[in-house]
Amino acid sequence: MSDQKTSALTARETELAVLAWRAIKDVQIDYEKLAEVAGFKSANSARACFGATKKKLLAENNTISPATPSGDRGKRAGVDHGNDNPTPTKKPRASRTKKAQAPAKELSPVDDLDV
User: Fold this and answer.
1) Is the pLDDT of residue 65 over 60?
2) Are 57 and 22 in contact (CB under 8 A)?
3) What is the value of pTM for the model shown?
4) CA-to-CA separations, 106 to 9, 101, 110, in angstroms, rounded
């Protein structure tokens, strides 16, 4: 083992720490602090580099979803998600039909005009 027993983690402890971080539900990363401790020039650099690492970690375990929502935001038509009791679909609105025009009344000329 190493001389720095108090500060260094063993391989098993490192593995366990990584697995524990992968199991956390709501993680907020302070990218300013990460940039400072990791030696990045800015928080944006830290965010970009960690984003690639995060994708690799999440790809290893498909059961963990990323913290940000993906583009798929709901059911798509025709996709079966294993529901035995699907909800009924709404019927599309019927288009309005034009009403037949009423025949115009014939106006008779006014013969008696009293002004």
Assistant:
1) no
2) yes
3) 0.36
4) 99, 15, 12
Cβ atoms of 17 and 28 within 8 Å: the answer is: no
- Between 23 and 42, the more confident residue is 42
Residue 77 or residue 24, greater confidence: 24
CA-to-CA distance for 78 and 91, rounded, in angstroms? Answer: 16
Q: 26 CB contacts (<8 Å, ≥6 apart)?
A: 67
- Judged by DSSP in three states, 102 sits in coil
Q: What is the pLDDT of residues 94-108, one digit of tens each?
A: 888 777 776 666 666
Give the whole-angstrom CA distance, residue 54 versus residue 41.
Answer: 20
Buried b (16+ CB within 10 A) or exposed e, 75-114: eeeeeeeeeeeeeeeeeeeeeeeeeeeeeeeeeeeeeeee
Q: How open is the CA angle 55-58-63, to the nearest 5 degrees?
A: 150
Q: Distance of alpha carbon 96 from its chain centroid, rounded?
A: 36
